[in-house]
Amino acid sequence: MRLNQLVDNMAFHRALPIAAPLQIQRNANSTGLSSLQGQKKTWGASSKQALTRLLAAVGVILLSFSANSFAKNSLTEPQQAFLDAYDAIKANDRPAIAKYKAQLQDYPLYPYVLYHDYRLHFDHTPTRRIVQFIKDNQNNYLGDRLYTHWLTHLGKTKQWQSYLKHYTPQESRDLQCYLARAQAQHNQLDAALKRAKTLWVSDRKLSKACRPLDALLRKHKQLTGSMIWQRIELAMKKNRLSLAKQLSKDLSRSERAMVEQWIKVYKEPQRVTDPLPKNMSPVVRKPVFIQGVKRLANREPELALNSLERFHAQYGLSNKQYNELKRSIALRSAYRYNPKASEYLQAVNGNGEATEDSLRWQAQIALKDSNWSMLLDTIELMDKEQQNETQWQYWKARALAASGDETSAKRLYRKLAKQRNFYAFLAADILKSDYQFNPDPVQPIDSATLIKKYPQLQRMQELLAIDWLTSAKREWYSLLDQLDASELHAVSILTSQWEQHSMAITTAARAQKWNDLQVRFPTPHKTPVMQSAKKHNVDPAWVYGVIRRESAFSHTIRSSAGAIGLMQLMPQTAKYIGRKIGIRKPSRQMLTEPKSNIELGSAYLSYLYKKYDGNKVLATAAYNAGPKRVDSWIPDDRSLPADQWIDSIPFTETRSYVKAVLEYTTIFKSLLNKKYDRLKDVMPPIGPTNVASKSAQ
Known about the structure:
Blueprint: H1 3-12, H2 33-43, H3 48-63, H4 67-72, H5 77-91, H6 94-103, H7 110-120, H8 127-136, H9 141-156, H10 160-166, H11 173-185, H12 189-200, H13 211-219, H14 225-237, H15 241-247, H16 253-267, H17 282-299, H18 301-311, H19 319-335, H20 341-349, H21 356-368, H22 372-381, H23 384-387, H24 390-402, H25 406-416, H26 422-431, H27 447-453, H28 455-465, H29 469-480, H30 488-497, H31 501-510, H32 517-520, H33 526-536, H34 540-550, H35 571-581, H36 588-591, H37 594-611, H38 616-625, H39 627-633, H40 642-646, H41 652-673, H42 679-682, H43 688-691
């Protein structure tokens, strides 16, 4: 898989926000400013300060809404009516709801009126209407969502007969638990107990929906010791020590002692270097030893390997378990570039136990050490698909050239240089040839016909107009599964025209339209990017490269780690850099606003660029992994060519990140300026000369 393809596919996994849809501020004829004016009359002149504060707060809220909806500065009559209907539904104003339902029957968002009314008022909605809605919307994500909400409502309210009647197989664990409870209440005890046994064995604490299954199993004496041990093992594998300890309360005193011993080994894995207690059952001893060896390998791989060799037969490890542990020890030693990592990996890879990961790390260590013969030997061990990846084609060429075979190396370089990716640009630098960007011509599309064909697109248009971005994204996800392959590209172009660039980029990736640079590398927010880049003396193409890799131009996203907005800033980082540029305590809301996010992100790039004395490679790596980690990766004893340093970064995410940002920056530079910087000019060697910058602030 090519690097740009891999990174585009990574954009697809970013989680959608699951908050309730935002409701935008209305015009002055609705409940917006008119209501504030009414409050002012009621308060009187003495409340001017309060009104000023309220209006200021409203102003902050308005900043969070997309420029797309406010550029139009008005809503159509149906859009306004829909938003009023949503207000009426939340207030359960039945006469108003009936009025709006009649008014909006032909409006594309009419299903949303029904959906939200039924979702919020299940107790007052006839079952036949819910069933009919689900049937009518079976090709629309609203049908599935209402069905899930409804089953949850039936389970919570213990409407077991209705639950059994309408249940179809579900992935949700909670919904399966409700099914078991429903079966137990309606003369299906055997089926209920069978299902409850399966659901009870989990690596997590039982949820509120599943907790009654514990009592059900106990009541019918179906909770066995093997089930408890099975669940303890799952909990220990997921590092849930408190759950394992809680579960052990149902065991005998001697068995509880074994669990306590297991927890001690978990906390002090060096215990596996000595024989485990003889009173520990062999069935328990094996998983305790396996986990202990894995955890010890993180700190002292040599000790872990010695323990494995000493005890594997005594504890009854199978050949498969033994080989997997050896590979695990080798990989953990490689992650830290332990001096013996190469030896361990060669032992694993030479015994027919190689995996893509173990071969990649052996090759990575070889290129870090400039061991070109070892690198060539390792690449030869890879399967054809892995060998043909651009990364290993490039490194094979580098190894061949270093070994004196310039002819074979140049043949590989010429093949690579025809492409558009990080390694292609490096190959072109070696050949001193022009970069090939290979753009496809802009494709005209019949958007009217496309929108008419797919109701999801009609609804997306309206949802975007009223700034219900979350719902629009859900419609888009639903649409992707229904599109003909031939129409994916057209939808990517259409969503790009709608300025929904993250959707467009992902759709283009699904269509495998890698050369549609207009869709894949847009330049929105150009004014704040250019202004912030100039103010902080950084390349605007670099800013765009970071935005493209971090968020794919989705300004509302938040990562699981808490990074926010276009340039995925952590709140603490934003606070730190904000102080440096005169922005006091930037709020989380501010970080979702493109202009302020770009300002802070550009300032942080500038800070890192200065810290690393103008080294864009180190600054880019630090933007992703943090300066402290990057400082620890800079070699103190020798200089390493930047391409070797990048591909020997210990973190897989950071390795991919640096390559993607450098590639994207080059492309954006070409699009913005009709010229580009060659990678060789922004990738100086990394080593002792960079050490002085480690302490720079």
